[in-house]
Fold this sequence. Notes:
CATH architecture of the largest domain in chain B: Up-down Bundle
Number of strands of chain A: 10
Radius of gyration of chain A: 22 Å
Number of domains of chain B: 2
Largest sheet of chain A: 6 strands, antiparallel
Strand content of chain A: 15-25%
GO cellular component, one term (chain A): cytosol
Main location (chain A): other
Oligomer: heterodimer
CATH topology of the largest domain in chain B: A middle domain of Talin 1
Function (chain A): Involved in the recovery of exogenous heme iron. Extracts iron from heme while preserving the protoporphyrin ring intact.
Largest sheet of chain B: 6 strands, mixed
GO biological process, one term (chain A): iron import into cell
Helix content of chain B: 40-55%
Distance between the termini of chain A: 42 Å
Number of strands of chain B: 12
Structural class of chain B: alpha/beta
Number of helices of chain A: 10
Number of helices of chain B: 14
Strand order of the largest sheet of chain B: 1-4-10-9-6-7
Order of helices and strands of chain B: HEEEEEEEEEEHHHHHHHHHHHEEHH
GO molecular function, one term (chain A): peroxidase activity
Strand content of chain B: 15-25%
Amino acid sequence: MSEAGTRVSRRRLFGLAGAGAALAGAGVAGGMAADRVVPAASTTDTAANAVPFHGANQAGIVTPAQDRLHFVSFDVTTTSRNDLVDLLREWTRAAERMAAGQEATEHGAVGGPAEAPPEDTGEALGLPASSLTLTVGFGPSLFDQRFGLADRRPPALIDLPAFAKDALDPARCGGDLCVQACANDPQVAVHAIRNLARIGFGAVTVRWSQLGFGRTSTTSRSQSTPRNLFGFKDGTNNIKAEDTDALRQHVWVQPGDGPDWMTGGSYLVARRIRMHIETWDRTRLSEQEEIIGRQKGSGAAHGQAGEFDPVDLHVHGEGGKPLIADDAHIRLASAESLGGVRILRRGYNFVDGSDGLGHLDAGLFFIAFNRDPRSQFVPMQQALAEKDAMMEYIQHTGSAIYACPPGVRPGGFWGDTLFH
Amino acid sequence: MSAPSSALRAAVVAAIGVGSLAGLSACGGKEASTAGAGAITVEASDDACKLSATSAPAGNVTFDVTNKGTKVTEFYLYGQADKVIGEVENIGPGLSRKLTVQVPAAGKYTTACKPGMTGDGIRGDFTVTGGAGGANQSNQRLDQAVQSYRQYLVAQTGALVQQTSGFVAAVKAGNAEQAKVLYAPARQPYERIEPVAEKFEDLDGAIDARESDVKQGEQFSGFHRLEKDLWTTGLRPDSGAVADKLLADVQELDRQVKTFDLTPVDLPNGAKELLDEVATKKVTGEEETFSHTDLWDFRANVDGSKAALDPLRAVVRERDAALLSTVDERFAAVDKLLDQYKVGDGYRGYTELSQDQVKQLSSAVDALSEPLSKVSGVVAQP
């Protein structure tokens, strides 16, 4: 699907494709259409916008980044390994259903007895799958003595070191489990997390959660590059779904990397990055561009003409000064500066209300997937925390790391390779 | 998101049933027939109440009432013992109004037009067919459960009167120290039956309103007013009068509870609502703002929740044994946590708990409430 030469948005095209599917399906659906709670048209593109749940890798990593995020971190409260496994099974069944655009459970919001609380919370009734993906991860704390997993903790699942200028709030850090819900409709993402949390009562408790309203990365060449709250295109140089070699090298855990159960998985690092957008907005355009290393309008790196022209860190300008400054964000984060290291970014913009001092509590909820954080995320973040000119405008307020197991086969469950 | 609702499918089936019934009665040629899909018309005059049909299938029943008389009238649908199922009042001469009532249970009902809006009105029999009706009305075990819970309610309001008397006596004697000791225990019987007590809206307001609940222009009274006096301001000139009123109100509650109408599903709902109370008022520490005796209330809410479930144990065990054992395990987990904060016969002040300890309590209550909320569906199974 090409966007060139047309003003019709992808979203619009999806809508039209959905309508076609609706007409085709009408004959089959006719029998029960009369008593639908919702208008038929809004449910029929359910299948069209569904991302397959099963596969060798979990969805929600190289899936083209959806517009919306609800991310949640859980603490496990049960001490029973069986209860934990049962929960993961039950979650997987609900996740399969919701990813397909169905309600979380069979009887749903209105199909059960009137005297019982509805099984599904109901706010997604009538909404299509909206490309919902649900991605699970296991935090370092899960591998303590409680569930007999201590000897299965991958060495790559480190406790993240302290980075310079960290301002971490313990209430936004860590957790035994995480679920990343991404969708093109915020209501669908929230519905998914809410229903999983509900299923989890008694076995897990929500530790923290984060909403993101706009993607800040592209993970596929089919997507255009979005902007973060600094107003800059973000993720231009990201690893894309089409870069299968790069994915193998930088994202997917390979056989022999560590314990077998993680093969096909990836390590997720989440950082809640508060942006001081008010002071940023008072900064000269030229300084903003210098800090990033790119032009704000086109997204082209300094010294280049187009957004996707390869970055050249060695171009010098007047007086022999490097066009991309020594402390520019893209220089410090570049594979060239980091000995070839790359990560897959999948972050989201957030605004969590205001801070009581007249400022928006805004920023970027950074999510990265990498094959081994010890050689990828950690050195990158160390370089950025120490030298990045951007650090003057940001603060890392939350932090977590999780091992995301490989994808689920039909009939399997989240983390079955770990618990077998 | 796309699964068709079985309830709605049931409604469609019911509608088909209606059609065939209507056909049959048309053959019979009788005047009073079963309602079709449309509304039942009611012609209300000064001396007659004429319905186009005197029976309807369970579900939503709509009456289209037209006043053809000279007096303002009203129309009622009554259940057993004149329990109001639905009513529409103030229909002036020449006017029409519509009443739609949900009648889930099959059985005998009564309609009434009340010209002049007084008296028993002009009555007629009305029959509702099909639906979930009969079965759950006649379940003896559930009726016994209701009886048994009623005894519990009455025992609690009895204890409430007794304990409140002691508390009130101490307040009136100006013995603040003694009153503070008696305050939290006196409240416990109330907290054990809170969802029922709250049905008596005026009494509940007078007995248990927190200062922030009191509307402008109304007086802050009841337990929490005395709590404030005892812990914050010291007893005031009108504390004795407030205490007298409190005692009179709990005595009135004790009288009214004896005739309170209960159905089997009220029990699990009450059990769940007691935990909702814990989750929204006790865990947050906002119930006992001045005395911080929230854990006493917490204990009483949880006990009351168990007590509402207890009479249903046999039924729930038979229908969903796993659910019952999960609920029991989680009650035990809450008990264990609460026990950590026991001091003598009572509990530590709520403000002494750390944020982590509060979170632990909150999680344990969530863990219990979720399965407990499923009991009502089990009890209502036909």
